[in-house]
Write a structure and sequence with these properties.
The complex is a heterodimer of chains A (275) and B (172). Chain A has 275 residues and is α+β, with helices and mostly antiparallel strands. Chain A is built from six helices and twelve strands. Chain B has 172 residues and is mainly α. Chain B has one domain. Helices cover 68% and strands 4% of the residues of chain B. Chain B is built from seven helices and two strands; from the N terminus they run αββαααααα. In chain B, strands 1-2 form a two-stranded antiparallel sheet. The termini of chain B are close together. The mean pLDDT of chain B is 87. Classes of the chains: A alpha+beta (275), B mainly alpha (172).
């Protein structure tokens, strides 16, 4: 005990010094306006910086959730655009709000589980299946263009026949002219596809945009695909072979939207009965 | 001993009156140049007897600063600075100790020589002014103002005190 007291006596000057400095600063902050403001300001700045940092960590942890919700949001927006296009073409006087309750197209967001791009026949696997109401024949698009068509579905997964597949055939049109042809993949370049069956009498310009025709049940009309980069006469026919440069680099696609068309069955039936 | 205390008390009252009634009103301004302030009351702490108790010096430093604050309308600012130099005094004295050591109680030019006193004075005064103006600005955003004020006030106050020392040349 006496040691403690002697310690206090020995450091009494220092203790008093600290005490008085604290009192002084208390007085400064309490009675001087400008210092008070600076104090409040800089302490805010400090706590603000800490808060921001913590918020940053929290945001990072929430990234997955945010991503998912954005995806849903995006799907809704794309859905709106597609349905709007369809409805305004069918009946120009019909307002979109009326159409909303009977939407033709729905988009189901899905994450890409795996994909191949370097093969002749490329497939993509989605982490969603029939439980998420995916069915064979549905089209798959990304925000930058079409991706492929679902060819197999299991409970939780589905396989997409990508447009970069020798078996893939997509009905597409040149926007400015409304000529319809089949889009196939015949080259090794994953960014270039070939549009066949465009008649010779068509006037084509490099840079014309190419989008889906809406003739198939898989894709709605006017989904942008890419641009004409080159064209030449096809082998022994009356048609052009047109090179289309894809807008989307399919190797970077991680999230896709599956297009669900309400009237798909009806349309399929009528097309098949025709044949 | 009592005469030493009388001297210190009289000097303290005189310097305080000088500072608060006269030097406080001196305002040297050339346009934007408003950095010269005579701040001499720190001498009271510097000239307290060498043998004095550290705790007592700190306490006197605080009280002195507090009185100045009341007149300067800046409660706490001068008190913080004077408390600091009162505490730092021991260490400054150790730094600037003369060759023969401190064998006399009065820390004055007449006891230890003018060069020693001016060294001691400049260290203490610079500390006082830098601390004072830093606390007054309260943020290193105003680093330019702090430096200018400290330097120019230091020059003015230093010469003021040096001349005073030469005129009065106190023994205690």
């Amino acid at each position: 005990m006496s040691n403690v007291i002697s310690l206090f006596i020995r450091y009494s000057a220092f203790i008093l010094f600290i005490l008085l400095e604290i009192i002084s600063f208390q007085l400064i902050i309490k009675y001087n306006k400008s210092q008070k403001e600076i104090w409040a300001n800089s302490s805010n700045r400090l706590t603000g910086a800490i808060n921001e940092y913590v918020q940053g960590i929290e945001d990072f942890l929430q990234l997955q959730n945010n991503n998912d919700s954005l995806l849903v949001e995006n799907a809704k927006l794309l859905e709106t655009i597609i349905n709007y296009r369809v409805s305004s073409k069918d009946n120009i006087f019909q307002t979109f709000e009326e159409q909303d309750s009977t939407k033709d197209y729905r988009l189901i967001p899905a994450k890409v589980c795996s994909k191949t791009l370097n093969l002749r026949n490329n497939y993509m696997t989605l982490c969603k299946g029939s439980r998420d109401s995916l069915f064979v024949g549905m089209g798959v698009i990304s925000d930058k263009g079409i991706v492929g068509i679902i060819s197999q579905v299991s409970d939780n997964f589905s396989t997409v026949l990508m447009i970069l597949n020798s078996e893939s055939r997509t009905s597409a049109k040149i926007n400015s002219k409304n000529y319809i042809g089949n889009l196939i993949w015949s080259k090794d370049n994953t960014r270039i596809m070939t549009l066949k069956d465009i008649p010779k009498h068509a006037t084509i310009a490099i840079g014309d945009s190419v989008s889906t025709s809406g003739y198939s049940i898989s894709f709605p009309e006017d989904i942008y695909i890419g641009k004409v980069s080159d064209y030449r006469p096809g082998l022994g026919g009356n048609s052009y072979d047109i090179d289309v440069r894809l807008m989307s680099d399919l190797s970077t696609v991680d999230y896709v939207y599956v297009v669900s068309y309400n009237k798909a069955v009806e349309k399929q039936e009528i097309i098949e009965s025709d044949e | 001993m009592s005469s030493v205390w009388q001297r210190n008390i009289i000097r303290g009252i005189f310097l305080l009156l000088l500072q608060l009634l006269l030097l406080k009103r001196i305002d040297i301004t050339f346009g934007d140049f408003n950095y010269v302030h005579f701040t001499v009351y720190g001498v009271i702490i510097m000239l307290l007897p060498y043998s004095m108790n550290k705790t007592g010096i700190v306490l006197i430093g605080f009280l002195l600063g507090f009185i100045v604050d009341i007149f300067y309308d800046s409660l706490g600012v001068h008190a913080a600075a004077t408390t600091f130099i009162a505490y730092a005094r021991t260490y400054v004295l150790n730094l600037t100790s003369p060759t023969e050591g401190y064998n006399k109680s009065g820390l004055t030019a007449s006891n230890y020589g003018l060069p020693w006193f001016l060294t001691y004075l400049s260290v203490m005064l610079l500390l006082h002014l830098v601390i004072l103006y830093s606390i007054e600005a309260f943020s290193f955003v105003y680093i330019k103002e702090i430096i200018f004020r400290s330097v120019f006030s230091f020059i003015a106050s230093f010469f003021f005190i040096a001349i005073g020392t030469l005129i009065f040349n106190p023994k205690y």
